Amino acid sequence: MAGLAPMTEQARTIARLMAVAMMVLGGLAIILPFAVGIAAAIIVGIAITLTGVMGIAVSKRMKQAGYQTISGFLYWGYLIVGVLLILMPKLTLGLAAFMLGAFFVFIGVLSWRAAQNDLSAATTKKVKGALSMLLGVAIVLSGASGIAWLIGVCFGVSLFMQGMNVWSTVSRSPVMFEADS
């Protein structure tokens, strides 16, 4: 296994500051998960809105050039969905919660039904099915706040752990001493 490349003291300091910033931001995301979830919905809304605007512009150019296209209609859909995400992030998070919860309930029902056909692993499949259904119901009942909380906590934990990883890597790398000029 190859060792870590040497770092200058300046690079080490910058990397440590970045690691601390990541851990602080990750901690804030864990403390304020709902705000992070709402912010994530708004950021996705901005990206979808920009996709719609650019798609409409490209579609108009293609029509001016003589091409037949129906994609402009689809891009209006992007634009509308993006604006809704920006203006009503709680509503869209609520819809996401409903869809995700319904998915887990569906998977749970399928697992439960599969257990009836496969007696060798029936107990495991029934437990998996029951847990999936319970998770689905919990997600549906928690609504927008539950999904926002989940997004915020997962993002916060991930960012905090990445910061710890950067700190650990920087601490283990050898220092490269710069020659005096």
UniProtKB/TrEMBL annotation:
TM region(s), chain numbering: 14-32, 38-58, 70-87, 93-112, 133-161
Q: Which Pfam families match?
A: DUF308
Q: Keyword Transmembrane: yes or no?
A: yes
Q: Which GO terms describe its cellular component?
A: plasma membrane
Q: What is this protein called?
A: HdeD family acid-resistance protein
Q: Does the keyword Membrane apply?
A: yes
The record's keywords, sorted A to Z, are: Membrane, Transmembrane, Transmembrane helix
